[in-house]
Amino acid sequence: MKAAAALVLLAAPALAQTDRSERLAERARQDREIVYFLQAPETHAFDLYHDFTETKEGADRYVNVVRQGSTVSNPRATLLDTGEALPVETLKADAITKAGIDTGGPVRPDSEAVVVRFPKVEKGRSLRVRILETYTDPGRYGVEDGQLVFDRSLGRPRNAIVLPAGYFLTNCSVPAMVSETEDGRVRLDFVNPRGDEIAVLLTARPRARVPAR
After folding, report:
1. Domains: count for the chain
2. Structural domain harbouring 51
3. Is residue 9 part of a domain?
4. What number of CA atoms fall less than 13 Å from residue 20's CA on the CB side?
5. What element of type H or E holds 22?
6. Cα 64 to Cα 81: distance, rounded to the nearest angstrom
7. Reduced to 3 states, what is the DSSP secondary structure of residue 15?
8. How much of the chain exceeds pLDDT 70, in percent?
9. pLDDT of 100
10. Do residues 209 and 174 share a domain?
11. Is the residue at 10 inside a domain?
């Protein structure tokens, strides 16, 4: 028993050191945050951006599978290391299969994927990419009973939602830090350290206009 205990004690510092090195990753390489900018709810549309770092040797693309029920438009990407624009294409249904794109599941007739291509990652190097897209999602974002309703699961450890200009928050199903952007829009920041998704349901209403004197 004493020998076993000694082995455990000797192994613990090495394990702790490995865990800490992963937890204290460079802030510039974090892939944990995504920001949604809600457009007027009548449009059912919102813009978003997210960054990611690719470190796998030989990797030359990033595939973003569009959630079922949503459609994507105006996708674009930038290589943050140099500032150059990257080629982006949107593939649907059979075009996904023909291009040999792995979506992590079966390709359906309504499947859609955004493919961002970049130079192959060299050994020991990395690439930092920013992706911007606009989504339309009538089933999860719109107007109900005269108020804005956003009902969507968020999968990143850090997620932020910025309400349309002129709207104030009335309800939110998940705890959030609420602040105001420089241009006066309401922003909600969510932190989820569990590694799963959070089902965010929020409502908002237009601010009352003060009559001019």
Report:
1. 2
2. 47-134
3. no
4. 6
5. helix 2-23
6. 21
7. helix
8. 83
9. 87
10. yes
11. no
